Amino acid sequence: MEKQIESQGLSRRKFLKVGGGITFLVSAVGLPALVFKKGELAESKQISAWVHLASDGSVTIYNPASEMGQGTMTALAAIFAEEMDADWSKVKIEDAPVEPDIYGIGWGGERGGSMLTVGSRSVSAHYNNLRQSGAQARYVLLSALAEKWGVDRKELKTDSGVVFHPKSNKKITYGEIVEFVKIPGSVPEIPDSDLKNPKDFKLIGKDYQRYDVPFKVDGSAVYSGDIHVPGMVYAAIVRSPVNGTQPELKNESAIRGIKGVLNLVSLKHGIGVVANSMETALKAKSMMEITWKGDTKAKSHNSQDAYEEYEALSKSSKTGSIVAQAGDLNRELPKAQKTIQADYKNDYIYHAQMEPLNAVAHVKADSAEVWVGTQAADGTRNDVANHLGLDFKSVNLHTCYLGGGFGRRSMTDFVIEAVDISKAVNLPVKLQWTREDDLQYGAFRPISLQKLEAGIDQNGNINSWKHVVIGTGGGLLGSGADIPFYDIPNKLIEVRNIDHGVRTKHWRAVGHGPNKFAIETFVDEIALEQKKDPYQLRRELMKNHPRELAVLDKVAEMAKWGSPVPDGRARGIAFAERSGSLAAGVCEISVDRSTGKIKVHKIWGSLDGGVVVHPANAKYQMEGSLVMGLSSVLFESITFKEGQVEQSNFYDYPILRMEDAPEEIILEIIPSTEKPTGIGEAGLPFMGAIISNAFAALTGTRLRHMPFTPEKVLEVLSS
Amino acid sequence: MQYSFILNGKPVQVTAEEDANLLWSLRERLKLTGTKFGCGVSLCGSCTVHIDGKPVKSCITSLSQAEGKRVTTIEGLSEDRSHPLQLAWIEEQVPQCGYCQSGQIMQAAALLAENPNPNREEIIKHMNGVLCRCGTYLRILKAIEKTAQKV
Ligand code: FES
Ligand code: FES
Both B69 and B97 in a single domain? Predict the structure, then answer.
């Protein structure tokens, strides 16, 4: 009998002892791999399991990354199963326990970093280690069998969970080996030459279904809001409308008097109400009258004025932080035959993941239990432990499916809130954020102004490139600002930051969204100015970068760039890299000149993501990210007035609906044997530019401020 | 207060306060958590269920409005993921994060019950109220169109 399902709540070590069959334990950082059988588990901290094999042949593979829709729980298990040569039809996938020493990964792909699921890194970072671990699992089974049968291990062949010994014509299933498998003291590192030849892959690069999909069509996938704990109560919080202000509740006794209200909990940034039902918690929240105290920096922030502040800062002779530099821009730019300049802007935007933040927490005297959908499994556990003054081991974190993350769920603020409230009331608590909470207490992709300037030499080539990003959010601003695939001899790319005291955060593809919009629109403007085709200009600039060029050529070929466009439509093209992946896009749009509404009819996209583990899902991630990108480009804007967010729900922060989805999205992946790169965000960065470029081709006017709302479209059309 | 209605084919009774809401009653009192909370104000459709076969946004529906009615949630659409739309959703691999998908499927099921062969325009019009942040719209369309052809 398998005990996985019932084991929820047990620690992994305990679980290993109760589970039937065997579990492969693969060491962390540099230690040899080990295998343990039921009851033989050493109490070492350096080891943990990747797979559990039961005697009925079922294989449970542990997923080290958060599943937020990107599908990596399937892809990661497929990498392991590939080298183990497991029977994929018998594979189950479960979230790994929070053991970053084992399941974590460093930025260089080394074992034992963090379980943080960000930056599209799950497949690329885990790829080699999971192949190795899968191959080690297979090695252990074959070694045990070789001994039992008295044959040479090298004579054994495997095929999807079955082992053959061709010489003697014998065969046996992996499940049957469980009965007699011996536990070796160590397992050697499998040399690359003994890993599968990619041409023999049955899963990697092939078509298979996502593991999570069936649970997401019948409502059975468990998100943290779905958790019920006996004795659980409900909490909601009113949070400071202006970041940093502190609450003073005016009508405490009225709130306490509401039937069903159990308690009030003061937090630094708000007031929590605890009730015996969700309805009562939400009602009490809406009735709180609070005065907000404190003069904070955010209070003076008016986002629409920020562009003037940025303009002023751009004039300062003090250079900001340098993102990239080549040649001598300050010497060469003034010598240019011609200079071209343009400014681009983008407003703050909000994550708007469909599942508003929530968490369930139960803080006891010397331990805590938390259920949450998080991108930061170990970060959350650590933050909770540190916050409560507990040992990490005393925090039992149950990871759940995420109803979208996009960067917001890499923060732990909402979990700490649930923990604080549970501690205060001494009960298990479900904390639910409303959509308004989620939006107004959001952490946004930063606003920025981008000033670009190019110098053209006497041969008509771009000789200098200056790009200054001015905005808020510090380190969030620079991602994607460099252009390593465009050979321009003199370049200076820098970031200047003003802290407005409001919350900013990584948002799918981070700075790549705004920066690629500015860069790729500017390249288009230069092309038009130089009377060159924008596709051809890019080809010239990246002529020494064959992979990039192949991606660009691919999309041009797919979209039949240069062929006639239907009446009233135009196309735009752009290239962008993200997380090591290379992507290019073309769109075809039309504009309703009376309403100012842009309609995107078609999008073509090409992608080079190195070895693609799960191509169907990779394409789908690209589709999703470009649809989300389209939404941000056409509709989304957060504005602050005196530090307060002016939007509150989907009526004033619209996101793309089905009627505005492109009619067709056509994507191709370029076959590659290079190492895998991150794919989950790759479709997003070029969206702003392909639309702006198509719009310019169609109307002769230029959109330089995202989002391209109907009002902005009408404004540029009439200018 | 005591409320009685038919939930996924079986009679249920719920004790709750006067202002009890259908969404939270399904999720918290009856522990049918497939129906999701997304906006609370009828703008996202994540909370879509059927009352007497018609799609409603449970977040703005009071529990008393369900009194004596037939309520169907994603859990009751079929017993084993065998509703043609669920099969199509799997075949087309529609969900990403999955959070909106119960609402999408319930909204689509109500459409096909009323109009077994909708055209693309009718589908878009009917489905437009259900948001998906992950951008699964084109596959939703395809899954509905395929199902419609089969029905
Ligand atoms: S939660 Fe009901 S429509 Fe959004
Ligand atoms: S699948 Fe994530 S919101 Fe629709």
Answer: no
